[in-house]
Write a structure and sequence with these properties.
Helix content is 33%, strand content 19%. It is of the alpha/beta class. It has two domains: 196 residues, Response regulator (Rossmann fold); 179 residues, Response regulator (Rossmann fold, 3-Layer(aba) Sandwich). The strands form four sheets. Strands 9-8-10-11-12-15-16 form a seven-stranded mixed beta sheet, sandwiched between helices. A five-stranded parallel beta sheet has the order 4-1-5-6-7, sandwiched between helices. The chain has a two-stranded antiparallel ribbon with strand order 2-3. Strand 5, helix 3 and strand 6 form a beta-alpha-beta unit. The radius of gyration is 22 Å and the shape is globular. The N and C termini lie far apart (65 Å).
Length: 411
């Protein structure tokens, strides 16, 4: 009997501390589903026809145990492929379930797929986040920022991200002085709005005190968005700021209540593959995605994160070329086409465990939140690398109370 739908399963966080990741990641996934169904569905080689796509979404409430139960339910319902959570902490638990069941797991959100060594049915759908860390030390050195402080969560995704940054800094010619390198341990279960941290964040004041005593030029924060929000509030209470403050969620802080004054002079990452749109052969261009998003979700997310869109587009491409939905054949096809697929996320070259191999010619942008000089509108401006930069970076040592007001034109 021929199938009625192709089922894509996904857990996303409609509540809890990972809700921000889900808002960013899964708009693009839903765009792909609607766009594909409007075209008649996805090609199912076994049936020799197109079949509509059914998206089965479950709220994992930002909790790994809840996510595991949800994925087990989705597998019982017979999903053909699974899209990962936006959290490495959740994905490290879920991937064990999909591996045991032989269900292909598209890693569209977890930041470091190197966490999943030995996987047979895991496929990273973009470059691992840790690869962009190599771009930071040259930028800091160019601007005389040599005293480095890093604060990160003692959780899988964050330690796998910040360890490489420390190593890159240590290996740089001339070296850096790492004046503070501190992990913040998990303190409770995951189910609060603050993730594995306490609801009372007064303890962050002590961390800010240590940062002030260390006198760094560079402060890099890698924690869940609610925790970063509270650290910045603690900085404001102390009236301090740092010449370079990078927050891995910084460009999205406005979504959790941080005001414009908090974001000015703040740097944030942006993975920007240096890919010529004319060479993209799977999944379309960023302009295509933007147009489709405007059509299907007007006013919801003007610039969706493309990873989930790319992931399912790559999967559908591999299914068609493999001649089967069977995970073993799809994975074999992925490795056969490794290095030849070019997406808006860059060229995909896979290691045996489905991790992406860092591309030879890639770069990661350093962006800064700036106020437009005429409209006073906040913008995310690329300041590195130099040959692509849209503006010169702005650094400040001024504490909050001594900064010029936003309307002064100094911004």
């Amino acid at each position: 009997m021929s199938r009625q739908t192709v089922r894509i399963g996904v857990t996303w966080s409609n509540s809890g501390w990972c809700w921000l990741d889900s808002r960013l990641l899964y708009t693009a996934l839903q765009v792909w589903v609607r766009q594909t169904n409007d075209a008649g569905g996805v090609v199912v080689p076994e049936d020799g026809r197109r079949v509509p796509v059914e998206l089965l979404m479950r709220d994992d409430r930002s909790d790994p145990e809840t996510a595991v139960a949800a994925v087990e339910e989705l597998i019982e319902l017979g999903v053909d492929v699974f899209c990962s959570s936006g959290s490495a902490e959740i994905q490290t638990e879920v991937v064990r379930v999909t591996e045991a069941a032989g269900v292909l797991n598209l890693n569209v959100g977890a930041p470091d797929s190197a966490l999943f060594d030995g996987s047979r049915f895991h496929l990273q759908c973009g470059s691992s986040v840790h690869t962009y860390m190599a771009s930071r030390p040259p930028f800091w050195k160019r601007h005389g920022l040599l005293r480095l402080a890093q604060i990160h969560a003692e959780l899988p995704g964050w330690t796998a991200t910040h360890g490489p940054m420390r190593d890159y800094a240590a290996a740089a010619a001339g070296g850096f002085d790492v004046v503070l390198y501190e992990s913040v341990p998990r303190q409770q279960r995951w189910t609060t709005a603050y993730g594995p941290y306490q609801a009372d964040f007064d303890a962050w004041d002590d961390l800010v005190d240590r940062l002030v005593r260390a006198q760094p030029d560079v402060v890099v924060l890698g924690l869940p968005a609610p925790a970063e929000y509270q650290i910045v509030r603690a900085m404001r209470r102390r009236g301090v700021w740092f010449r370079y403050l990078e927050m891995l969620y910084g460009q999205f802080m406005g979504r959790v209540g941080l005001g414009p004054e908090d974001l000015l002079y703040q740097f944030h990452p942006g993975w920007t593959p240096d890919v010529d749109p004319a060479t993209i052969n799977v999944g379309g261009t960023p302009a295509d995605l933007a147009a489709a998003t405007k059509r299907y979700f007007p006013g919801v997310e003007a610039n969706p994160v493309p990873r989930s869109y790319v992931g399912v587009a790559v999967w559908a491409h591999l299914v068609a070329n493999a001649g089967s939905l069977e995970p073993e054949r799809v994975m074999a096809q992925a490795h056969a086409e490794s290095g030849s697929l070019v997406t808006m996320e860059g060229r995909l070259t896979w290691a045996p465990n489905g991790d992406t191999i860092p591309p030879e010619h890639s770069w990661a942008g350093i962006h800064q939140i700036r106020r437009h000089p005429w409209t006073a509108e906040l913008q995310s401006v690329l300041v590195h690398p130099a040959d692509h930069a849209e503006a010169e970076p702005v650094f400040t040592d001024l504490p909050y109370e001594r900064r010029p007001p936003p309307w002064s034109g100094v911004w």
